[in-house]
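Need tokens for this chain, all 513 residues.
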Amino acid sequence: MNSETLYNGIQLPEIWPERLSLDSLSEPHSPVKPPSIIQIDTGRQLFVDDFLIEKTGLKRTFHKPELFSSNPAVFPEKDWEKIDNFSEVQCPTAMVFSDGVWYDPQDNLFKMWYIGGFMQSTCYAISQDGVNWEKPVLDVVAGTNIVHNAIRDSSTVWLDLEEKDQNRRYKLFVFEGKKADGNLSVYFSPDGVHWSEKILETGNCGDRSTVFYNPFRKKWVYSLRDFIEKGPERIRRYYETDDIITGSIWNLKETVIWAGADKLDFIRQDLKIPCQLYNLDCVAYESVLLGFFSIWRGHPPYRHKINEICTGFSRDGFHWYRPDRTPFVGVSERYGDWNWCNIQSAGGCCLVVNDKLYFYFSGRAGIKGRAEAGISSTGLATLRRDGFVSMDAGDKEETLTTRKLVLSKKFFFVNADVKENGFLKVEILDSDGRIIQPFSKENCIPVLCNSTSIQVKWQNVEDLSDISGKPIKIRFYLKNCRLYSFWVSKDISGPSDGFIAAGGPGFETNRDT
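Here are the structure tokens for all 513 residues:
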């Protein structure tokens, strides 16, 4: 069997995915070893790990999104959103439980799927701007915005812009019923509103199982919840297939152990309970796979479940680097807030909206002194584009030198925030570290602004054609500056050819072209 070489130069082992043991989940995944030469033609290159970095004096800073001031953006208000046949206390619900939030370029609309009523049906909302949401009256269940009327737990809606059959453009994977173990039911739709008859039932899985598409490898991946009674309890298993219809049958216990909460996930001192991995939603963002880890920190009898979203990043689609264990989106500690309990991510994970990323997530208000969910709603948080991590310099000039890279595109771009009395310059070196003229620091026109897309230029240099296909290193010089990412582009307008998660205005495909 020939091993697979990825878009970034990583060569996968012949046995793939790796067979992990249950005992190994308490340890963080080992960092993926960079190839001898890293390909950088696909996507913006993020500094979320040391994959790209040979040497630096810069400080790495992790950034959190800003919560929308008018949260929740979507909340239970319709009669059918207030139905609850399962709880002792009624828990009105309009929340993403993965489900999905996408931008559809055919209709130029933001679209959201969410649970309407506590574990009742799947509802649908639309928005022109991703901030103000409308619940349209539809014909599936007359007079409502219900688009799928099955009692359900978790689900994933995926807008598949690579699908050639328009009737399968949208895909729904939903755990129907209220048992803890069962299957995912699969449906297709041309518009996300009118769904087919059930296409198939997958292999067995737990109730919080989800799905994503890995476009780097053209694989559908099932993120399968398993519950280990004598062990770490909630964990994730991994199953991949080229084809949903022919490849979605498995035996859960024979699938590959993938991820769990590990020893670096902090334990709340008020609970003192080992963490568990409640869910793992994933999406391709630029040149990495972005993972939203819903970390369960406990479910005390006096408060509903405490789940918080933490981030992870993968270069090969299986192994995760999780450098920041503090919550990316966490629970509020103030009773009465809509998000006092149980934060969960949306399927698709994030959208690219101009210079920002939009993240949708659900929160539950809880009921003080009880374990019930209370009112469950959906909120919005925003972050600078590529803004998960920055490499920073202060008043003293510092440098960052990459490992050996290779590129074939003509124009060089950065996402940077240059402060007063600051600058950013770029120098290109050969594989032995010697400056390639005329791409020197001295010949570089300094970057002096704050922008998510800035072309870097050298005096009397038309483009990067002279170094195309040659092993190089890049050295950045920073002072009073934050560097978020860099990339090479085929065009002076700066498209990265990277993947754009759940899309956004102005993008016609799932890539920044």
